[in-house]
Amino acid sequence: MKWNNWIRQFHRWVSIAFTATVIANFVAMGMGEPPSWVVYAPLLPLFLLLFTGLYMFVLPYATKWRSARSVSGKA
């Protein structure tokens, strides 16, 4: 499996984990004052989503830049 495909698959699975932690957070808040670890649980998947999402956002631009650089270097 290519590196880019692995990042995309990882991003999908982390998004499911993030959604589950947010739902658990709302359920815990509905039951009263939740413990702090429940409140902060969505932050880890959120930061992982941030980094993988930024990587996937920059990837087309980096590919374009690298292909333009290699073409200009051969001429």
TrEMBL record:
It comes from the Bacteria. Keywords: Membrane, Transmembrane, Transmembrane helix. The chain crosses the membrane at residues 12-31, 37-59. This is Transmembrane protein.
